[in-house]
Amino acid sequence: MIFNSNVFLVFVAVVSLLYWLVRHRASHRDGLILAASLVFYGWWDWRFLGLLMLTGGIDFVCARKIASETAPTIRRRWLWLSVITNLGTLGFFKYAGFFVDSAATLLGHLGIPVSLPTLQIVLPAGISFYTFQALSYTVDVYRGQVAAEPNPVRYFAFLTFFPQLVAGPIERASFLLPQFREPRVVTQALMAQGLWLIIWGFFLKVVIADSLAPLADLAFGSPSAGGGVIVWGTLAFGGQIYGDFAGYSAIARGVANTMGFQLSPNFAQPYLAGNIQEFWRRWHQSLSTWFRDYVYIPLGGDRNGGARTTLNLLITFALAGLWHGANWTFLLWGLCHGSALAIFRLWKGSTLGSSLRIPGPVGGLLTLSVVSLGWLFFRAPSIGEALRLLRAIAEQPAPAWAFSYAWAVVPALAAIGLSDLFHRRFPPEVVASWPWSRRAAIQGILLIAIVAQWGKVPPGFLYFQF
Questions:
Q1: In whole angstroms, what is the distance from residue 447 CA to residue 466 CA?
Q2: Residue 404's pLDDT band (boundaries 50, 70, 90)?
Q3: pTM of the complete model
């Protein structure tokens, strides 16, 4: 079920009404959330509900066993069962076909005739998100950071919570599960905050992201696209993926607010970052902190010298790149960001870097350039195609295309920048405290823009493919 669809609007209205009717019974609310989440996920393809419940059930049992056992060896065995189940399921559905095809291609280049089966595996929606959330639950139980949940209904309601099930934020059990264990009080302030986030999220998705999508598609979908189209299309894609994903995250947080929950922020004005390290503290925060806590730090983090830190960064971001999809372009995108972070750390630790202060606008422009280069590889269907796009940019003189598509991209990117500045000064909880007349005026303008654009682009969401 796609957020920016009429079906979802009706679904949320019905669930909200039922949620209000059972407001005095927490157990009924948990059951309602679980039922609603299964309908929400099954709307896309009901066949994968069994996979979701099976892997989630294994994690439920593993966490309970880890919590009840005292022998370290036995506890580790149950942890490894959870890890293998989650990563094995993710690996099969997301990467099996990719590695088989890559192996066949490599052997063909080596002159070795081979006939490997082509695997046509349907990727379950949101598997990367809910797998990481389930895995972090069992790891945190093993670490003693959260108590194992004894109530299966509450546990599955937490695991399948529909606002963030298929697109995040990837919630930690230590943050979200206690909210299921306590009475949820939907206050007027929380409702106001939720409504603001929902409307703002739809504005980012429907008005900003969907208006930039055609130019991004033109740049990356046409073999004859010139350098100007590619440059502006890459910038358009950077705005599209931000509006798409940040908008979806805002809607998820807003819907959760209206049910008495708080979800973690996922974006904090990333395009205002002054360096690449700051960018990753602001972009897709639930994923970047997940890889920090469960991959980078266990590898050693920055505790074993510069060379080992660089290696840990490259490994972490290579895995983060592959998390996004089974394509070598995602791996290259991850290595690009990992290398940029390693270079930034070396620069910051050098004598020149510590004494020379780079002006904020210059640092921001350099960061945006690195991020945009990464987006080109991220969006391209293959490494060969990405290199062709770079050649097309280099072969066409800049004056010939510098302003060719500015009219289509600059207004939307300016709207993103202004919105980020606005939310830096006025976060949702501050906006929720404003007089209702001021909120109504701003929300009314946003709603007019949303209604005007609603349905002009087929409903979709970029991160469903990841």
A1: 29
A2: low
A3: 0.92
